[in-house]
Structure formats: C-alpha cells, structure tokens
From TrEMBL:
Region named Disordered: 1-35
Gene: rnr
GO molecular function, one term: RNA binding
High-level lineage: Bacteria, Pseudomonadati, Pseudomonadota, Alphaproteobacteria, Acetobacterales
Name of the protein described by the UniProt record: Ribonuclease R
GO BP: any one term: mRNA catabolic process
Highest taxon of source: Bacteria
Amino acid sequence: MEGRKPSDPQPPPDTLPDLSSPSRAGGLPDRETLRRFVTEATGRVGKREIARAFGLGPEHKAALRDMLRELALDGALVPAGARRFRASAAMPEATVVQVTGTDPDGDPIARPVMWEGDGPAPVIFMHPEQKGRPALAPGERVVARLKRVGPGRYEGRTLRRLTDAPGRVVGLFRATPADPAAAPRRVQEAGRIVPADRRSKAEWIVPAGETMGAEHDEIVVAEPLPMAGHGLKPVRIVERLGPMGDARSVSLLAIHTHAIPHQFPADALAEAERARGVSAEGREDLRDVPLITIDGADARDFDDAVYAEPWSGPEGTGFRLIVAIADVAHYVRPGSTLDSEARRRGNSVYFPDRVVPMLPEALSNGWCSLRPGEDRGCLFVEIHIDAEGRKLRHRFGRGIMRSAARLTYDEVQAIADGQQDSPLPEGMMATLFDAWRALSTARAQRGTLELDVPERVVRLDETGRITAIEPRIRHDSHRLIEDFMVLANVAAAEELERRRRPCLYRIHAPPSPERAEAMRDNLSAMGFAVPPVGALHARDLAGVLARAAEGDAPTLVSETILRAQSQAEYSPDNIGHFGLALSSYAHFTSPIRRYADLMVHRALIGMGTHPPDAMPAADAAKLEEIGAQVSTAERRAILAERETTERYVAAWLADQVGTEFTGHVSGVTRFGVFVTLTQTGASGLVPVSTLPDDVWTHDDKTHTLRGRDSGLVLRLGQPVTVRLAEATPVTGGLLFTLTDPPPVPARRARGQRPR
C-alpha cells in the first residue's frame, strides 16, 4: 500500500465542500463545477481530494490532469505547492492601482494598491493616456477599469487620477548630439532620461527647451508632459540633483525615487528649536546610575542607555538591569506639526553619506540624544533576571538621567577583550557581559531564528569618493545591545497588556503554507527534516541552521529559510513574533528614529488628554491605520537603503568590467540566475542568453535552472566563478557571465536504474 508523502498532507474532512449528490459522483465534472469545488474548499486541494469527491477512478486520471492544467493556464486556479491548487482571487472590474514601472514602449505597468490574495499581486498593463494628457509616471495612483487577459495579467484603462501632483521620473539625463543629416522629428529632442528604477524599461524624451540647463550624465527629476502621439513619452526636467560621478548624488537619487520626505516644514523646525531640557520634578532621579550608551562610531543620535549589576533575592541570584530610552514623547506632542511630520516619515532613513531623520536635528541630535554628562529626560524599565536569563519582573518609570559614557561597539569589545581600559566603574563592563550571557542562554533555550545575513558598509572619504565596500563586522557588543533591547521591548508589550492599554505590536507571522511547503521540500532534499506548517517553530529552523553550519552548504540552507520568511510589521492585533519566538513583542527602544516606538511610549505614559503627551483616544482608535502607515514607511526605507548600496557598488565596480569574481547562486529565475559576490556581497544577473546554447528549464520548486541537452544544472547556493560584463550605476544593475560552469552530472547508461 502506497503511503502518503510528508509533503502532501491530507486535509481534514471538514475543509472540503459537500459534493455527495449522486448526480455528481462517478463522472468527470465540467470546468465550472471543478472550479467552484476548489473555490468553496478552505485551503488547497489536489487530485486525490477531487477524485474522492466526484467518485473518479484511474480511467479519469489523464483527463482530470489536463482539465486542471487548462484551468491553471486560464488563471482560474493557481498552483499551491506540490500537486495542489487553490482558486485565484478575481480582481474587481474597477479598482485603485499604482504605477510601478513601464514596458519597453513606455506604457505604464501597475499593481493593485490593495491585494489580499495569496501569492504575488497581478500585473496590470495600462493603456496609454489620451492624446494631450500627461503620461502616467511611476508612483501615480489611478482608478482603473480592468479586463483580464491571462493568469495574473490584466489590461487597465484610467478612469480617474487620484494623485494631486503629477508623477515624477528620476534618472540620468543623456544629451542628444545634434545631427544635421537626421530627418526632422515631430518633437525636437534635446536628450533622454534613463530611469533609475529598474522596473521602468523605457527612456523618456526631453524636448528642446525643457532641460532646465541639465548637463550630460546628470541626475535629474522630471515630470511628464502632454503626449503628442505614440512612442516614448515626453517629460520636463524640474530639478537637477548633481552629476552621476558624484557619489553623494546617489542618496539623493534614492530619496527622490521613493518620494522620501527630506525637508521639514518651518513650523516643525520652530517647534524643535523651542525645546528645552526637562525638570527633575515628577521624575525618578537616575543621574547617579552609571548608564552608558553603546552605538556605532558614526552615530550621532543616542536614544538608549544600559546598566547592569549583580542581584540576589528570594528567587535566587541574577542581575538587575536598567534600559533607559530618550523621552521623545515629552517633546513631540500629539496633534503638533512635529507629530504629523514624524508620522508622515515613519522612520529615519540611513544612507552612507547622510541621514534623513524622522525628527529635526535640534531634537534627534540635541535634546533627545543621551549625550554623556548632560541631563536628559527618559523612560526607563528596570528588569530583574535570574542566572539563566529568565525575566522575573519589571518596572517602568519616567526619569531624568545623565549618561556616564558614550562608547562605540569597537571600544566595548576591546574593553571586554582586555585590549583597552574601561572608563566605567570597576567590574561594570564585566557585569554587562555576564548579564548578556545569561540572556543568550534564555534566547538559545527559547529557540530564536538567527539568520546571519551579511551587511555591506560603504566607506566614503571627505569628498564623497568611495574608498571601500566591506562586510560589517558584528561583535559580541552588538549582540549585547540587541538582547538588552529585545528584553526591554518584551517588557513594554507585557506591561501594556497588563494595563489593558492599546499596543502597536511588532509582529512576525510564520511562513505562509505555500512558502513553508516549498521550504520543507527543499530542506528535505538536502537531508533536513522540518515539521509541517502547523507545528513549525523557530527553534526547528534554528536547529537546521546549526546542523547546516557543520556541513558544506550553509549558504544554501540559510537562503532557503530566508526566502520562506514573512515580513515583520506593526499591528494592534498581536500574533506574536515567529522569528524571535516571542508571544508578545513591541518596539520601545528607538523613538528618535521610529514612530512606532513613540506610540508605545505614549501608551505607557497614559491614555486620554492628561498628561498631554499620553496617547490620545483618537490615535488608539486608529492604531491599525497607523501600523499600516509606519510599516509601509519602513519598507520604503529598507528598499531605498538597499538600492543606494547597490548603486554605490555598481559605481565601485564600473571600472572592473572584465574582472573575474567568486560567488554563489542567490536566485534562480526562468530568465537567468542571480549571483552574489563573496567579497563585496554585490548581486547581479547571469542572463540565460549568456549560458551555453541549450534548452533551459526553470523549476521553481527546486530552485534550479537545468539544461535539457547538456545536463548542466544551476541551483540555489551553488558556488560559481563569474566575469563582470556590465555595471550600471544609475540603476545599480550588474550583469555577469559564467566563466567556469559547474560540472555536468554523469549520464546513466540506458536501462540503468537510478539511485
């Protein structure tokens, strides 16, 4: 008897619709009946469930397979794992869409603003705007009438524009050389703009008189002009950001591409300038406690300080910890201009050459920065832990503190290693690390998911020239601060739950069923067993990573697990944090640079209008909206920071075209493989057109690209040697060619049984 495979679980009987009518049993259903059956089922169904519901026998196997394939090709069903399907989510006839790029002809491509279906959102190919109206540019939102043209594909026509200002095009201006012999054009062309966004596949024409004096190879911002006909779309340059060769123009490019607010309103600046120090009245005095800040060498805003001392009590021995956080809520009051601007920004954005702060510098680097030797207001949490790092109790308060020292991660590590003298009271640094080791023990027992994703650092000199791109070094001092902050964040979430106050949680959902199943299949093929979705825990994946570290494919295992993870976000509905293996978690420790933390501070301070810096009832009622807003801002910042690093890397490598590099396959698609370089962490594409002449087949389940005739296989995590073929700083794009293709698997003789 054939047993059920672990990757093909049997759904519970009550998840399938009742189709027990005799008229439906014993014969192949029609397409609509089959589609409705899959739609009414909660979850995913496969051929086995369909055969059982309709009473099908082996003689129907081929016909059922063909019908399922046709429904999938038509888009009525969506593949959902191995041999399983689910109904596709239909788009309404008219909906709000956002332009994300252009096709090679310059026509806009969009995505629905709201998408609740599983899998990627459908692609919408927008018709060109009517003659005399400006073309749609990336970032614009419109109400569009949709028509389905294939699986996950729609055509759209603009019904109404929703954005107040015209869309913006950010890119590189290329002046068009004058050619007297050329035929006259309908539009006298002064140059073209190469978009900085890789999703925009077409250039934009800049007519004569619309260049704003821009020079060749200058980064510019433009807005669409009314169209005169078909073909590439015209734009007018409205802002010049600087030459592409200037490294400091790169961050400006990202700021404008993603419409990141970077100039404060005059009223917000005035409010920040009026700020003054806090009084000790009504606050707990912590000025005699030697709290210290530990940050990066280039940090200018110090919003958290830590302290630890040995402790013993009725519960045993352990440590008394204090984590003090800048009292931003005292200065940024609900309803103020500062508050609305901070909410609009959502967070600070960090680039190699600048920071776009959430708060004006008078606060972020001034009164809200815990500078050594200066009195500062704070919110603090006092926490007692036992020798195993388990939290016994905590207490929150509002205080006034005076930082004893500002130390860097490198300095703290040097002190811990005995390579540098400590400016702290004797034994305090050793106690901090002893407390951290206890917290590390608790974290290991909890089973958190620690994916060691390399981070690149771009080094610039005083003129903005790139001097190095190197991996960021992580010390135990980094982990010490991380674990102290996690503990404080847990205490904040638990305190708000205890007081029954609204909380903007930091949540991280487990992998979706589709991603988890694909991850299980891949890890199983590599010899690692993972529990099914409902029983999956972060400690299971942590165990896989630990075992993989001892083998020969740790990168492949780590990237397989990483690809399955959901994205963390902010929400008032607590579902826990899967990666940290915590049931309640909130961000409390960085209110200078994250608006979500400021909301948690206000909730801890109180509710209503008294005190005036507490959380207003109106904000408590719309926490879900605020959570979605700051989550979107966070994703925008992450994307802008990553793209900026990619552009710096492309500029760094632009004069190394033809050089060979070692790396590994970090992504596999039907159009080629992505390779991440070992030395710089830069990623680029090896197009399938540059691979050996063959018929290449992409297997999304196994993350492989296989040559039919050669037998050559490229798979995720595979080490490769590549040659840099092209580097495009304006988009950050890199193109490689394989110089040393992996060995072809030996072909077995005809009739030989496979292993």
